[in-house]
Specification:
alpha+beta; 17 helices; 17 strands; globular; ligase; ATP-binding; GCS2; glutathione biosynthesis
Length: 461
Amino acid sequence: MARDVSDSTPISSKAELVGWIAQGEKPASEFRLGTEHEKFPFYRDDLSPVPYEGAAVGRSGGIRQLLEGMQARLGWEPILDAGHVIGLAGPDGGGAISLEPGGQFELSGAPLANVHETARELDQHLMDLKAVAEPHGIGFLPLGHSPLWTREQTPMMPKRRYQIMKNYMPKVGTRGLDMMFRTCTVQVNLDFAGEADMVRKLRVSLALQPLAAALFAASPFSEGKLNGFQSMRSEIWRDTDNARSGMVPFAFDEGMSYEAYVDWALDVPMYFVKRGDTYHDVAGASFRDLLAGDLPQLPGERATMSDWVNHLGTLFPEVRLKRYIEMRGADAGPVEMLNALPAFWVGLLYDDAALSAAWDLVKGWSGEERQSLRDTVPKAGLNARIGNRPLRDLAREVVELSRAGLARRARLDGQGRDETVYLEPIIAIAQSGRTLAERLAVREQGAWGGKVEPVFPELAL
């Protein structure tokens, strides 16, 4: 999220929270997709991480200079936090640039009509970013986990909400700080037509999120060596903060609804309450208490709509519901993988035949089977199993459903190509059963001579 929402409208009932989500409903003709992707900035000469202020390490530029350079190039509005520029907002809701805690540079893309448009958006973003970063000797590495730096070597960005999270994370899990400072993702945000459509898409995407994690696994390195996982990022999420993350098992209960998600969200502990320019640390507190005006840290203060929207943005399940549905399971990767992720989910969820066929594949899975798959994928990748079935076999079938869904959408680019062209890298992964993580591990053991440093020049954006 590039900036915290400011909406002082008071909330007087749970029904208003449910209604806020329901306002995201759209007719299928107005469905859009918004793609978000993160990458690690690094100095090309010594592969060191980029701090907020480059001068702190004797450099001509750091994260601040990158943001200021992009602001000058794009004309986007700077987003400030206690006087620090910590992001940029595009015009008319047309995307944003933001920072993750360790300096991961994120583009939150605009809501666009098709994957061709999001691919062009990515190309333009990388062209602009390269023009701004090259004079400072900065490159960007798109992997799911930082391959070289320790947590202590990773800089922290000057966003006050991140200090609150940093203090709270060790109280609720062992890997929260690694999640904050050393992971990168690519995700796509998709629309729903109504409550029943939301439920169907949420269930299918939750069940298949571990498959996406396997197909896009790209984090086999940590601190200069193989870490034993195909997706260390996915493994980290298994012990970050289980009260706000995971597979949302209640989504498969009879009667799943907007209200059921709201009830869950109300019981997830809060991080902060923002009033004016002040972040009040209320980590661990109940939103229900704020809604009732009984929050001990802020006596008499009542919830506003901005409190609710900001709180929803601090929930981290594998699939997140706001006024759209967010697919959160994939590692960041090279450009072709960044485009494949939205294509994969659009093909499955925006075509009725593909969505129905995908539901038929997963509806018989038990909660225990879904969780077992989620738990084994970070290490096993496509070698995991769902019930008695190898995941690699399921991958081929699901990718084909997505391909057929995109073909039926028939959204063509200027060369007459439909969106299936963006699935080519994961079609190859599904057919071979070999993930990017496995291929990188082979490179480390072979051509790279046991070193991970070559991944930087080979994959740098």
